[in-house]
Amino acid sequence: MTITLGYWDIRAKGEACRYLLRYSGVDWTDRRIEMTEEGYKSWYSEKLELGLDLPNLPYLIDGDIKITQSVAICRYLGRKFGLVPGDDEKDIVKNEMIEQEAVDLRAAFQEILKKDQFEEKKPAYFENLEKKLEILDKYIGDGPFVLGEKLTYVDFMLYEFVSQIRKLTAERVDKAENLARFLQIFQELPQLQDYFNSEKLAAEVPINPSFSAFPG
Ligand SMILES: N[C@@H](CCC(=O)N[C@@H](CS)C(=O)NCC(=O)O)C(=O)O
Questions:
Q1: Are residues 71 and 24 in the same domain?
Q2: Has residue 207 got a pLDDT over 70?
Q3: Distances in whole angstroms, Cα of residue 38 to Cα of each of 51, 90, 205, 208, 209
Q4: Is the pLDDT reported for residue 1 higher than 90?
Q5: What is the largest CA-CA distance in the chain?
Q6: Which value, in Å, is the radius of gyration of the alpha carbons in the chain?
Q7: pLDDT band at 202, cuts 50/70/90?
Q8: 70, 17 in Cβ contact below 8 A?
Q9: Global confidence as pTM
Q10: Separation CA 201–CA 97 (nearest Å)
Q11: 102 and 147: one domain?
Q12: Mind listing the pLDDT tens digit for each residue in 31-66?
């Protein structure tokens, strides 16, 4: 039985889930819905027919397991592929805090994406971002990953959301040296090389919708 991940044809909240599936090497269906009139029609006509308890995108169907909420999908895939912390409570807490910090980073980024507000909101966003990244950088430490040598689903989320922001402001992200090193090391994971080196990622997959102030 093949796992299906459905999401718009952008990175936004779906890409970290896609990395987890690619990393694991399982067979899966990368269901992408174009953000066109046709695509919207197709999604809204099937949205309530997929058996999802809280219908939304992204969704993941793995046999009788049907999930929405991107963080719940990442957690599920983390458990499924052994990409979760062990029993150490300090590790679990650090992982969960950084999971939510990554979600906050994405939310703050998303907050400035409306075309008519982008320029006005950018300065305050950057100021806050610099502070957030400085603190996160210290907490991450030497890594190489969030929990040292142990890779978990949170690394996939953190990588994705920080590298999305890096597209907008590389200089601010690169000032956070531990984070910048983390991005580099994650990007070198052998299981993701085919994808990271593919032209599809480089040329075709926008971070945000084309109607936003920063498709990326
Ligand atoms: N908290 C949810 C947010 C889901 C959400 O807002 N999905 C947006 C795209 S990022 C959407 O277009 N959903 C389709 C719909 O509402 O039908 C998550 O993280 O998955």
A1: yes
A2: yes
A3: 22, 48, 18, 18, 15
A4: no
A5: 49
A6: 17
A7: low
A8: yes
A9: 0.96
A10: 29
A11: yes
A12: 999 999 999 999 999 999 999 999 999 999 999 999
Look at the chain and report how many structural domains it folds into: 2
> In CATH, what number is assigned to the domain containing residue 28?
1.20.1050.130
Q: Which atom of ligand 1 is nearest to the CA of 69?
A: 20
- Ligand 1 binding pocket (C-beta < 6 A) is 12-13, 47, 56-58, 69-70
- Residue 212 inside a domain? The answer is no
* Ligand 1, atom 18: closest residue by C-alpha: 69
Long-range contacts of 32-40 (CB under 8 A, 24+ apart): 32/6, 32/7, 32/8, 33/6, 33/7, 33/8, 33/9, 33/57, 34/8, 34/9, 35/8, 35/9, 35/10, 35/209, 35/210, 39/8, 39/9
Closest CA to ligand 1's atom 5: 57
Question: Does residue 151 lie within any of the structural domains?
Answer: yes
pLDDT tens, residue by residue, 88-106: 999 999 999 999 999 999 9
Centroid of ligand 1 to alpha carbon of 69 (angstroms): 7
Q: Can you give the pLDDT at residue 186?
A: 97
Beta bridge partners of 67: 60
Ligand 1 centroid, distance to 178 Cα (angstroms): 31
